[in-house]
Write a structure and sequence with these properties.
By secondary structure, the protein is an all-alpha fold. It contains four helices and no strands. Helix 1 (6-23) packs across helix 2 (25-43). The N and C termini lie far apart (65 Å).
Length: 127
């Protein structure tokens, strides 16, 4: 079977991302939260390194959602009736996204927390 060309592959990948965002509530939530995090980060004037870490973290969560959607789709195709192993596969895939999401919250707090704290609760000795 011949491999599709680069642009056709990009079209398929884009369709997969659009499908995930259109059909998965959590993907929509992650996308909106990620957008808001980036707006706050830019508003705070964070440097490129911190912005890069946030972008990578947001991207990891969204990639996790696409992988979870893939697992769910394959399991539903191969096991239309309920099966304990199908449940395990779906639960473990969802756990992966949960781990990424909780890690993203921690990264967000570590990066955004101090400048937000300084912005809203300036210290006596600050500028």
């Amino acid at each position: 079977m011949k491999q599709p060309g680069f642009w056709r592959s990009m079209t398929h990948a884009w369709a997969g991302l659009v499908y995930t965002i259109q059909t998965q509530l959590n993907a929509k939530i992650h996308l909106c939260v990620g957008f808001l995090v980036m707006v706050v980060a830019i508003w705070l004037g964070l440097d490129f390194l911190r912005l890069s870490v946030l972008v990578l973290t947001i991207g990891a969560v969204l990639a996790g959602e696409t992988i979870n959607t893939t697992v769910e789709s394959i399991v539903d195709l191969l096991s239309p009736e309920w099966h304990e192993k199908a449940k395990v596969a779906k639960d473990v895939a969802a756990a992966g996204v949960l781990i990424l999401s909780l890690t993203a919250v921690i990264v967000g707090l570590l990066i955004l927390g101090p400048p937000l704290f300084e912005r809203f609760i300036p210290t006596k000795f600050g500028s």
